[in-house]
């Protein structure tokens, strides 16, 4: 009988609050019958005090030293009874040695957040001015398991079928032109789901949505006078808590339900959700930073430290999380399992993932236990795992990231090759072909689905700016234009910045369309940057990490102003999703295993079946035989793509089709709005079936059907 269970009754009392010994696992705060189980790990603390607040109150209503006999190994655990779950905020004081040279920075005057807290309060609305005198700014709260998911579950879309859209939660709807309620929030994205569906997106990748401090490193812009903030959010305060400032209901503490509702609605629309996760560093910074949580609980466990006790800085942001310490490794696993199980997340993109393969002394590991654990974890078994396969400490592992048959990578070489080819650099044909066929030179053991293909992402120029600026223009960031990459491989088409010259503007739009065409006919998984489909500009700023303004916000009026770009992007995505021959899960074999009379892929030049591979060549074509789609399992049309990045038009001789098939035009970037692309099923038949004039710096896509 339940009423006779002894662990439902207190054995101790302090300041009128009743409690008993708790359960060591799970870590964090968990509701149990009549009370809350609190559990926290520290390898070196000498004592731990639980601090309890009424929500929003400046001072705690109780501080309960956890009796030493409640400690199990290095875990302090206690069940506290008769608490008001809804109004509760909690934290800890940790006592222990303060000896930075030994790695210890205990300070019992600080109240510390729980690393495992599922809700973090205290900073509940975006950019609300913090109270710097608050003794406890980031307050741990309980999450309630009362959300009705109905029949929702992760979608498990085959990875080769994804078209990923990299999005910033705030930036997507914050611009006044978005016309939605609660701009810049999770709930506002729901209003834009029809837009994503029409564009053809079936996966969004969200920049960090964990609780972070947007006031970190805040200062005034020297050019605009606006406050500069930590806008991108790559500086985590808590890995388990969704950001309250991204929720319209954050001020009511309802951010968990708001985010879950968004995910449920996206899944109903067939759109997966990938989270950009930042397990390489935290918001506590180096020895000059704030003590919020990890540093005060167990500095030596959570961070990579030099022999002198300083912080290794492989992230470029002051500290590096010690991910291959077993305790931290378990926290990362617990965190990802929680997001996958409790939020139905479909996958994760790991920021500066090369760090996850470093040993506690900073050296790269040949068999990193964390990466192996993630690859084989039973709860994450169907989640997409995507690595940014480099870090700020110089470890570059594109093509060599330890993958265990599971990991895909942001293919930085695809980005660089495509940009160089688009700006007509010589000697790029062989390199570009490798990227178009899924980068077998990098991923021979993994297949083309290991390659996340992108030409732009949040970090760097937008796609429009790639063809409007030769140089970065980051003065507004207040770092004397010293921040951001210098090797952009961009080309301004003859004029730096905005111009009224119709020829330059036509060329820029053509180049944006060329980029979309290349991306959508490449094997691997395409990723589009939010707003590139409408020509979003950052005015030449290639490092907008601190700009909470129109440099980063999606201007929805561009949908009309650049309707040609939007229509072309939408049709290219539709084309890709309609033709399985563009989405092979395996590499091409270069022979006719389907007995169609054509190999699965063949390469051509201005003469059919004769590609110019020379150093001076800036053009080539390829033909995909639809009978070989998905290794001959499904039938598709013939797809022919001619790419001419030479500065004059070239006649391409077309390969002859089998009896009864005719060439039809899908896209020609040399044409104006309305004639540059066609919807699936509406492609006009070519009058001339033997050759095609491909304009200067243009791409032509044909289907044979």
Automatic annotation (TrEMBL):
InterPro entries: GH, GH13_cat_dom, Glyco_hydro_13_N, Glyco_hydro_b, Glycogen_debranch_GlgX, Ig-like_fold, Ig_E-set, ISOA1-3-like_C. The keyword Hydrolase applies. GO terms for biological process: glycogen catabolic process. Residues 166-576 form the Glycosyl hydrolase family 13 catalytic domain. The keyword Oxidoreductase does not apply. It comes from the Bacteria. Keywords: Glycosidase, Hydrolase, Transit peptide. Pfam families: Alpha-amylase, CBM_48, ISOA1-3_C. GO terms for molecular function: amylo-alpha-1,6-glucosidase activity; isoamylase activity. Transmembrane segments: none annotated. Belongs to the glycosyl hydrolase 13 family. This is Glycogen operon protein. It comes from Larkinella arboricola.
């Amino acid at each position: 009988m339940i009423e006779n269970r002894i662990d439902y009754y207190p054995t101790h009392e302090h300041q009128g609050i009743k409690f008993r010994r708790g359960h060591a696992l799970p870590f964090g705060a968990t509701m149990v019958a009549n009370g809350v189980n609190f559990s926290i790990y520290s390898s070196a603390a000498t004592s731990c005090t639980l601090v309890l607040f009424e929500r929003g109150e400046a001072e705690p209503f109780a501080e309960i030293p956890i009796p030493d006999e409640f400690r199990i190994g290095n875990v302090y655990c206690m069940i506290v009874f008769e608490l008001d779950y809804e109004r509760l905020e909690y934290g800890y004081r940790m006592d222990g040695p303060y000896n930075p040279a030994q790695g210890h920075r205990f300070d019992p005057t600080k109240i510390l957040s729980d690393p495992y807290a599922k809700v973090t309060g205290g900073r509940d609305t975006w950019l609300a001015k913090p109270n710097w005198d608050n003794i406890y700014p980031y307050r741990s709260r309980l999450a309630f398991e009362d959300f009705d998911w109905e029949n929702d579950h992760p979608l498990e879309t085959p990875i080769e079928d994804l078209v990923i859209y990299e999005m910033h939660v705030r930036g997507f709807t914050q611009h006044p032109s978005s016309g939605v309620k609660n701009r810049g929030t999770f709930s506002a994205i729901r209003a834009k789901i029809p837009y994503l569906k029409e564009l053809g997106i079936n996966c969004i990748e969200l920049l960090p949505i964990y609780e972070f401090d947007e006031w970190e490193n805040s200062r005034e812009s020297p050019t605009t006078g606006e406050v500069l903030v930590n806008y991108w959010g790559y500086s985590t305060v808590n890995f388990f808590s969704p950001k309250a400032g991204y929720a319209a209901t954050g001020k009511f503490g309802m951010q968990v339900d708001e985010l879950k509702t968004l995910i449920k609605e996206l899944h109903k629309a067939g759109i997966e959700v990938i989270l950009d996760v930042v397990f390489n560093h935290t918001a506590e910074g180096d020895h000059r930073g704030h003590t919020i949580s990890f540093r005060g609980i167990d500095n030596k466990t959570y961070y990579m430290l030099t022999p002198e006790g300083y912080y290794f800085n492989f992230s470029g942001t002051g500290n590096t999380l010690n991910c291959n310490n077993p305790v931290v490794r378990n926290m990362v696993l617990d965190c990802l399992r929680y997001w996958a199980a409790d939020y139905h997340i479909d996958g994760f993109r790991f920021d500066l993932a090369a760090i996850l393969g470093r040993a506690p002394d900073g050296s790269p590991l040949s068999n990193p236990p964390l990466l192996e654990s993630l690859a084989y974890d039973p709860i994450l078994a169907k989640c997409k795992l995507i690595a940014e396969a480099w870090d700020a400490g110089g470890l570059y592992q594109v093509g060599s990231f330890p993958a265990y048959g599971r990991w895909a990578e942001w293919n930085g070489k695809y980005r660089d090759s495509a940009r160089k080819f688009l700006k007509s650099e010589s000697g790029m044909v062989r390199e570009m072909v490798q990227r178009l066929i899924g980068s077998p030179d990098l991923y021979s053991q993994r297949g083309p689905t290991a390659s996340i293909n992108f030409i732009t992402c949040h970090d760097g120029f937008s796609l429009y700016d790639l063809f409007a600026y030769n140089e970065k223009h980051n003065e507004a960031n207040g770092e004397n234009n010293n921040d951001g990459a210098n090797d952009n491989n961009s080309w301004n088409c003859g004029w730096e910045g905005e111009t009224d010259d119709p020829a330059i503007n036509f060329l820029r739009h053509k180049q944006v369309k060329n980029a979309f065409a290349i991306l959508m006919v490449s094997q691997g998984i395409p990723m589009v940057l939010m707003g590139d489909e409408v020509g979003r500009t950052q005015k030449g700023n290639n490092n907008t990490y601190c700009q909470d303004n129109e440099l980063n916000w999606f201007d929805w009026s561009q949908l009309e102003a650049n309707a040609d770009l939007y229509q072309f992007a939408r049709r290219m995505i539709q084309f890709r999703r309609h033709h399985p021959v563009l989405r092979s899960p395996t590499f091409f074999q270069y022979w006719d295993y389907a007995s169609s009379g054509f190999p699965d892929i063949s390469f051509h030049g201005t003469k059919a079946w004769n590609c110019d591979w020379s150093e001076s060549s800036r053009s080539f074509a390829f033909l995909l035989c639809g009978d070989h789609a998905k290794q001959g399992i499904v039938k598709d049309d013939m797809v022919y793509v001619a790419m001419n990045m030479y500065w004059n038009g070239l006649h391409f001789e077309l390969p002859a089709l089998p009896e009864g098939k005719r060439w039809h035009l899908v896209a020609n970037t040399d044409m104006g709005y309305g004639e540059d692309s066609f919807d699936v099923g509406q492609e006009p038949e070519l009058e001339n079936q033997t050759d095609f004039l491909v304009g200067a710096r243009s791409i032509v896509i044909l289907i044979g059907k």
